Amino acid sequence: MLIKKPGELKAADITPQEIYLQRRDFIRAGSVLAAELLLPGVAQATARLTGIVKSRYSTSEEETPYKDVTTYNNYYEFGTDKSDPAENAHTLRTRPWTVSVEGAVKRPRVWDIDALLKAFPVEERIYRLRCVEGWSMVIPWEGFALASLIRQVEPSGSARYVEFTTLHDPAQMPGQRSAVLDWPYTEGLRLDEAMHPLTILAVGLYGQTLPNQNGAPIRVVVPWKYGFKSAKSIVRIRFVEQQPKTAWGRAAPSEYGFYSNVNPQVDHPRWSQARERRIGEFFKRKTEMFNGYGDQVAQLYQGMDLRKNF
Ligand SMILES: Nc1nc2c(c(=O)[nH]1)N[C@H]1C(S)=C(S)[C@@H](COP(=O)(O)O)O[C@H]1N2
Ligand SMILES: [Mo]
């Protein structure tokens, strides 16, 4: 058993929850500011989001520092090194920006991003994010349930899957000038996965609008799946009958399946998925089935062979 020394007590252990939460927000605001001041040359054109409600779907685990969340990224449109997106994503123009919601729906609509932000109230969801490469973070996202937007467009009976497409513009996205992936980046979910209350469209993190490197102005977050399912900077959400092709599925179909649920029992062909390193920690921890969200999502896959449907 692990016995905590006094120095390891967290504020959460010794103050009432409410005071703890206020203090945490205060510390957070300070660390966002500090990170902005300490990163000269790195684009940090974020704005504070207000009126954010806290969600009951949040984990109480320790949040990964803002600096790590915004400087250790996968966003191949801006380079393949973890530090590339923070250095290069300042060339992305996030206004004007539209998201086309189309395909097998009764009310297709091209949403202007600012209209979208006004229409759907933003709440905070502190989620674990598990990358297929074997690291993880805990990120306070600001966003809203994708289901709210889906209900609004009324999918028709033939809609069974949802496809997400990232912006395709090599002039803004230097990584798209080389064929690392078949651009644009696309991803997909089954309609019931997309409708699940845990699936969100994120527009911010740490109380601020999204930094470009994290997928500004709007990205998907699906916490029980490997991080690559959570497509960044999306311009199109399309409802389709057939399972859509995904960018990673096209690149290496035997390595990146459509479902890509976090599963410590099904290894990636080239490495184990049993453990992960939480960014900022030294020792690895065990990876949990469905990234710890099994109670909420396991029923979506009842009767399915998760080795075949990896
Ligand atoms: N368009 C696009 N979306 C993307 C990626 C990408 O390269 N391009 N990388 C994915 C991967 S592998 C991960 S782990 C997460 C990382 O999100 P974060 O940088 O905000 O933590 O974004 C995902 N979304
Ligand atoms: Mo990832």
List the helices and strands and how they pair.
Blueprint: H1 11-14, H2 17-38, E1 53-54, H3 66-71, H4 84-88, E2 98-103, E3 109-112, H5 113-119, E4 123-130, E5 135-145, H6 146-153, E6 161-166, E7 186-190, H7 191-195, E8 200-205, E9 208-209, E10 219-221, E11 234-240, H8 247-251, E12 275-278, E13 285-286, H9 294-297
Parallel strand pairs: 1-4, 2-11, 5-12
Antiparallel strand pairs: 2-3, 4-5, 5-8, 6-7, 6-11, 8-9, 8-10, 12-13
The structure holds ligand MTE and molybdenum atom.
Short description:
The chain has 9 helices and 13 strands. It is an alpha+beta fold.
Helix content: 10-25%
Distance between the termini: 35 Å
Series of secondary-structure elements, N-terminal to C-terminal: HHEHHEEHEEHEEHEEEEHEEH
Helix tally equals 9
Number of strands: 13
The CATH topology assignment is: Sulfite Oxidase, Chain A, domain 2
CATH architecture descriptor: Alpha-Beta Complex
Determine and state the CATH class. Alpha Beta
List all distinct small molecules, including ions and cofactors, that are bound in this structure: ligand MTE, molybdenum atom
What brief labels describe this structure?
310 residues, alpha+beta, Sulfite Oxidase, Chain A, domain 2, 8-stranded mixed beta sheet, 5-stranded mixed beta sheet, globular, binds molybdenum atom
Task: Write up this protein.
The protein has one domain (15-301): Alpha-Beta Complex (Sulfite Oxidase, Chain A, domain 2), CATH 3.90.420.10. The protein contains nine helices and 13 strands. It has helices at residues 11-14, 17-38, 66-71, 84-88, 113-119, 146-153, 191-195, 247-251, 294-297; strands at 53-54, 98-103, 109-112, 123-130, 135-145, 161-166, 186-190, 200-205, 208-209, 219-221, 234-240, 275-278, 285-286. Strands 1, 4, 5, 8, 9, 10, 12 and 13 form an eight-stranded mixed sheet that branches. A hairpin with a 6-residue loop joins strand 12 (275-278) and strand 13 (285-286). The two termini are 35 Å apart. Residues 1-19 have low confidence and may be disordered. The ligand Nc1nc2c(c(=O)[nH]1)N[C@H]1C(S)=C(S)[C@@H](COP(=O)(O)O)O[C@H]1N2 binds at residues 73-77, 129, 131, 166, 185, 214-215, 227-228, 230-232.
